[in-house]
Design goal:
single chain; alpha+beta; Zincin-like; 6 helices; 3 strands
């Protein structure tokens, strides 16, 4: 899958979000990056030689924002192109995993942890 098709898959995953969730994402930037940097992986306790990421949420989850929260930079969701296209060979499988990854990272924005997100199938 080339980069343009991948970008379409990410856009489609975002467009398919139910409105009751999508409306909260007005200050969330979703970006597509080639690879997670080795320093980023190390900062997350991962080994860059054997570990990678498909996506990453960086920001302040909704449940941690108080009444005075505001004026902050947008939260950021990174979707990593190369790890996904290396791990999944067919366009259908890549699209499926992109959707799962987008939903997984958005779930972090809503305050869910990895254990709960995995129980939900993402």
């Amino acid at each position: 899958m080339d980069r343009a098709e991948f970008e379409d898959a990410v856009r489609d995953a975002l467009d398919d979000l139910p409105d009751e969730f999508a409306r909260y994402l007005d200050n969330v930037q979703v970006v597509i990056e080639d690879e997670p940097a080795p320093a980023l992986l190390r900062s997350l306790g991962l080994n860059p030689r054997r570990d990678t990421l498909f996506g990453l949420y960086q920001g302040v989850p909704l449940h941690r924002r108080g009444g005075t929260f505001g004026g902050a930079l947008p939260d950021k969701i990174s979707i990593f192109y190369r790890p996904l296209v290396r791990a999944f060979t067919s366009p259908e499988r890549i699209r499926h995993q992109v959707r799962k990854t987008v939903i997984h990272e958005i779930a972090h924005f809503f305050g869910l942890d990895d254990a709960v997100i995995r129980k939900l199938g993402y």
